[in-house]
Amino acid sequence: MTEQTETNNTAQLPIKPEDFNRFNDVFFKYLFAKEKRKHLMIDLLNSIFDDRRPVGIKGHITDISFGNIELNVEHKDEKIGFLDIKVTTDMGEIIDVEVQTYTEPDIGERNLFYFARLYAEQKNKGLEYKDFKPVIVVNLLSFIIFHDREKYHSSYSVREDELNDLLTDKLSIQFIEAPKCNKGKVKVLNRLGRWIQYLTFSDPSEIKYFAKTDKVFADVLEAEKMFRSNPEDMDAYLSEENAKFRLENILRGKLEEGEAKGRAKEKIDMARNLLKLGVSVDIIKQASHLSDAEIAAL
């Protein structure tokens, strides 16, 4: 049976609502990056900026236009687990909405690269520096990156280290750590909290109740229902999930391999140090579990 056949057959099996990944790239694009549903993206962005106002956004967003989807993907391997949607507001501000399901050590540097690319594009359009529009990078994360704080929404700008005065309002980078929202001591009852409740499926009954009087969330639930009932959409969804599963296995294997190499190195270093101290080979064998040949090679 081919992989495509497996995917198609699996798509016919119902996925429980609690198992449906709303951070999936295919579904997220379907829900938020379609012209006919741009009011959902507008509502999401306004909820984010009402919670933490970026320095470059002065008021409510009333309209947007979509640029390239996945504008920052240069290599096929980078696609899995990362989705970027370029949005331009009615006032010209540029927003890079980045959805990530995998953590990485250089996420800050990656964000600066995204900002620099979008900011420099304005010079290519013939604009003077004074006319450049602000660029805001919004990271919507399905994992925790800042373990030193309880708050789930962090906002960064360019300020003087001691005086804290703002250098420019052209750069803003925000991180939203979804797993922190409505967990433990953090109880978020604002609009953004509602969105995170939906995306994480942390309180489905409340979202359904909320949708009875809120057209935006009524549209969200209806769009999800349409997506989940469409075999082609679900095939694409499952293909993305399977790719992530394979990547997770590869990363897990590399991690285990690295840990095994680390343990082996520790044994060798210990045996080498014991030899320098004049400890007998028999004792070193018992302590390190290395063979006579391995110890002799030291």
Describe this structure in words.
- This is Rpn family recombination-promoting nuclease/putative transposase.
- It comes from Candidatus Anaerobiospirillum pullistercoris.
- InterPro entries: RpnA (IPR010106).
- With 298 residues, the protein is an alpha/beta fold.
- The chain has two domains: 15-229; 232-298, no CATH class.
- Helices cover 48% and strands 16% of the residues.
- It is built from eleven helices and six strands.
- The protein has helices at residues 3-11, 25-32, 38-51, 76-79, 107-124, 191-200, 204-211, 215-228, 231-276, 281-288, 292-296, and strands spanning 64-69, 82-89, 94-100, 135-141, 153-159, 166-177.
- The protein has a six-stranded mixed sheet with strand order 1-2-3-4-6-5, with helices on both faces.
- A hairpin with a 4-residue loop joins strand 2 (82-89) and strand 3.
- Helix 1 crosses helix 9 and helix 7 (204-211) packs across helix 8.
- The longest helix is centred in the C-terminal third of the chain and has 46 residues, at 231-276.
- The protein starts with a helix and ends with a helix.
- 24% of the residues are buried.
- The model is unreliable at 1-11 and 73-77 (pLDDT under 50).
